[in-house]
Amino acid sequence: MTKYKVIGSGLLFCLLTNFSFAQTFTRADSLRGEITSLRACFDVLKYEIDVKFATLAGSNEVTNYPIAGAVNILALGVQDFEWLQVDLFAHLQIDSVVSNGQLLTHKRDLNAVYIKFPLVKKAGEQFSFKVYYHGDVIIAKRAPWDGGFVFTTDSLKNPWIGVACEGFGASSWWPCKDHLSDEPDSGVVLNIQIPKNSGLMAVGNGKLTNRSTNERWEKFTWEVKNPINTYNVSVNIGDYRQFSHSYTSSNGEAQKLDYYVLAYRLEQAKAHFEQVAPMLGCFERLFGPYAFWEDGYKLVETPYWGMEHQSAVAYGNNYRNNKWGFDFIIIHESAHEWWGNSVSVADHADMWIHEGFTTYAETIYLECVSDRATAYRYLLEQRKRIALRQPMVGPYDVNFTDADTDVYFKGAWMLHTMRNSLYDDSLFFSHLKACYQHFYKQVTNTQEILAFWLLQMGEAYRPAWEHYLHKPQLPVLAWQKQGKGKAAKWYYRYEEVAENFHLPLTLSGKRIQPNARWQLFEDDFDATVQADLNQNYLLEIKVYGLLK
């Protein structure tokens, strides 16, 4: 499923180039991030991944963890071509590339691999090729933030393995077209092989379709039938036990929720994961149906904190609820099944769509299971983590990594601000649900999401949306007092915003529409007004001295 964004707006270009980003980009970043003709020429239809793990756990003496594998790539020609690009980190060696029994020429450029076909592949032609490779995996120093594998042991010294590679790249461990714009239309088959008689289980995405052994290996075959981000393809190996809960989905069908947990955590997990079904019910009601029942829903216990691996959500929070009474990793990573896995982006520059909507889903969940006041207190704590150092929308066509958490918390607060500016929850949530359903199982971008919301809210809101997305600083709402005592009057206006900035506010039940001119506030600028501003809108508040 190929989706490429088009940057057609001069305004957007100016907004993106007026600010610098902390990250320095290299040629390798461009090779990962840019859609050149060597990538645009084909659309991936399906991956079949075979990967063997010969070493399962580490003693202190073990420093290398080898894998060997082959990936068959089924694709469709989009343009006529002879050469195409796939990606595989340079620490992994390609043994051969084969198509229809014929060896293909290939050459490297850093982590990019160029493959030549003997005859021109035509637009509309379906073809396949298989890449054989081997090498040592990269061990993550601080998964899931830095990317790579974790090879460790559980409390009983059983081997325990997981991988998390968002941003870092799926091509750090398997050859693929490693770009968010192209999800395989027909999904992935993942064959994980581990040494026979290890007593362990290998868990991947989707559903287990086969388990077999030969003289040396035990193979677990997992299949995903839906499109999936390459970074979401996951390997988990451990002393797992499986159990299920029942759930009735929004379409009225009975579904099975599966859990793979360490054997000695089984009873603890059964109780702790009871919060999953109410969460799914909340999200299905307010966003729309879970997109991947064909592939199932499961949590898999991992030796790192968590990750939104589609249909195999990584869970490593040690069965702890926060002070708000829920397990953050369960709620946040599962919400990504809606925002990130179903509604996906074509470029890392637009990651606010994944993280902003998902982070706001935590607040929405609290409203479902508690009340609005509690949810807003939760949101106020998140506000403290907004950095305001760079725009939420990053640079395109490079391997961009966010330097802070504004795509999470500023993104959530931007949505919260728009909700309260509308001052109509039923309308906001109808827009939110329509947004999810409009982009259901699609790859999209900032331009398309913004166009959708402006169609719902009105074009007048464009400057406000673009300010939050493309400027690091917040809109300023200024207040000034005239006079003293009972005769005092308060005036307000927007500052440091576009001239046509439109963001209506509701304060103490009164609707106001600030602009660039000072306007009289028909009330006192008291603690109630300040509380409304603080909990409902992401604005910088400036209060000036008395007017003469």
What is the CATH homology-level superfamily of the domain at 36-238? tricorn interacting facor f3 domain
How far is the N terminus from the C terminus?
Answer: 64 Å
Helix content: 25-40%
Using DSSP, what is the number of strands?
Answer: 28
Tell me about this structure:
The chain is α+β, with helices and mostly antiparallel strands and 548 residues long. Among the domains are: 36-238, Immunoglobulin-like, CATH 2.60.40.1730; 343-353 and 382-470, no CATH class; 476-547. It is built from 13 helices and 28 strands. The strands form 7 sheets. An 8-stranded mixed β-sheet has the order 5-4-8-2-1-11-14-13. A 5-stranded mixed β-sheet has the order 16-17-18-20-19, with helices on one face. A hairpin with a 5-residue loop joins β16 and β17. α7 (352-369) packs antiparallel against α8, α7 (352-369) packs across α9 (406-422) and α9 (406-422) crosses α10. The longest helix has 18 residues, at 352-369. It is globular.
